[in-house]
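Workshop exercise sheet. Pairs work together: one partner reads the sequence aloud, the other fills in the structure field after running the prediction. Swap roles for the next sheet.
Pair: D.N. / O.F.
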Amino acid sequence: QQYMVCTRVMAHLAVPVLLLSFSLLCCSSPSRTRKAISPIQAGAEDDDVKSQIEKLWQEVHLLKEKQALQTGKTPNIYMMENGDLRNYARRSAPGSSEFWIGVSDIVKEGQYVDVNSLPVSYFNWDRSKKQPTGTKRESCVALSVAAQGKWQDEVCRSLKKYICEFVIP
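Structure field:
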C-alpha cells in the first residue's frame, strides 16, 4: 500500500470546466450586429461576468471536493496505525496541520462512513476539544497533526490537503 497527500486531485478537471464555462459566458448570446456599449454598460457587464465566473469557480471547487472524496481508495487509512499516518502527513506536507481522511457523516448526522459509504468502526476523536461537535454544519473528518493525529469534525468546504491511499500491485 502506498499513501500520498493529494494536493492536485482535480486539477485536470478544473481547467476544462473553467474554459468551457468561460466560452459559454462569452458566446452564449451571439448577435448579428454590433451595438455601441457605453462605459457604464460595459462595467455592469464586466461585473456580471465576474459574478458568473465566481459562481462557476465555487461549483468547480464543490465538484473537486466531491470527486476527491470518491477518487482515492481510503477505507483503511483511518484504521492503520494513527501515529504512522500523522507522521507521514507531517513529513509529506510540512506546514499543513489538518488533512481530510475521507470520513464523513453527511448522509446521516452521527453515522460516519468512508468514501465507499461503508460504516466506520474505528474513531480517534480529539476529546479535549469535545469532538465530534455533533453539528450538521461540520460533517467531514480531518486528522489534526497538532493534536497528535486526533480527529476533528470540520466544515466540508474548508480547504485542506487530502490523504489518499493507493494500492500498488
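Discussion prompt: The first helix runs from residue 11 to 27. What would you look at next?
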